[in-house]
Amino acid sequence: MRRRNSIPRRRNAGIALVIVLWLIALLSLLAVGQTATVRTETLVTGNQVTAAQARAAAYGGIQLGLLELLRPSQARNWHADGSVYPAELDGVALHISLADETGKVDLNFASGPLLDALLRAAEVEDDVRIPLVDAILDWRDPDDLHRADGAEREAYAAAGLDYVPRNGPMQSTEELMLVLGMDAALYHTLADSITVHSGNAVFNPTVVSGRVLQRMVQDGVTQGGTVGVHDDDGADAAPPAAAARGGAVGRVYTVRCTAQMPDGVREQYEALVRVTPARGTGAPLHEMLVWREGAGFDNATGWNVEPE
């Protein structure tokens, strides 16, 4: 009788052992999953901290560039011609550039020949370039009369667009993308060569930073868009920046900064600022006009400056 009773007990013990082993296996899987989750959360948190450090460093780089612009021009160590200057802030590598907006083509003041020369330098074909120049001029002029190859409200309606030309000055360079005939690829090609903040009908060849404008200068295209030779004595230099809008005074600059952490994380900021020289014993003033931030901007706009 005892031997018969021992068989069920052994079976029960075996079943219990299997259950215990399954529980151990299940708990092990849960532990592994929890460990992986904690590890992932730790990595995410670490990445967020690193990204925050990169943003803070990039912001600091913008302030360094602004500080340079607030110095008297003869005391500046950096040129406002788009050159990239390396710096370091709390162990973070910075690459900072300053660009004088007078070294760009002002979309609100440039003549037809200058706009045509700009698009030629960007290698835009005649069948696109000629109507695009007229469309830009029609966009900014105050009337609804279209030029020979231009575009006013009827042309935009025919193209299925739900907006019409401003018939006034462009408020930003991005507005150029709304002009009939302009596309995103061409805009990004032109982006670092155009402005709406110089207030000049010509560009200053001594501070040209945009790649398309650099090509124009190399080809001997003058500020007005005609082919010629720039005088070395500066006679062809642009006049002082005009008051572009609302009686504003001062000169406008683009300050860009790329911050790169040791692990490769990068952040990029851009600021458009107007700097007004000091008067008398006062300090120079600055006004923030535009602030852009974020990684991954297109190279053609001047972002993603590679470390040297």
Q: Classify the beta-strand content into a percent band.
A: 15-25%
* Alpha-carbon Rg, integer: 30 Å
Largest sheet: spatial strand order: 1-2-5-6-7
Quantity of strands, as a count: 7
Could you name the ranges where pLDDT drops below 50 across 5 or more consecutive residues? 227-248, 295-308
Q: How much helical structure, as a percent, in the residues?
A: 25-40%
Task: Decide which structural class fits the backbone.
Answer: alpha+beta
Number of helices: 6
Cα distance, first to last residue?
90 Å
Number of domains: 2
Order of helices and strands: HEEEHHHHEHEEE
Largest pleated sheet? 5 strands, antiparallel
**What coarse outline follows from CA principal-axis ratios?**
elongated
On the 0 to 100 scale, the average pLDDT is: 82
Characteristic terms for this protein:
308 residues; alpha+beta; Ribonucleotide Reductase Protein R1, domain 1; 2 domains; two-stranded parallel sheet; 17% strand
Written description of the protein model:
This protein has 6 helices and 7 strands; from the N terminus they run H-E-E-E-H-H-H-H-E-H-E-E-E. It has 2 domains: 1-104 and 239-308, no CATH class; 110-191, EpsJ-like (Ribonucleotide Reductase Protein R1, domain 1, Orthogonal Bundle). A hairpin with a 5-residue loop joins strand 5 (251-260) and strand 6 (266-276). The longest helix has 68 residues, at 2-69. Helix content is 37%, strand content 17%. It is of the alpha+beta class and 308 residues long.
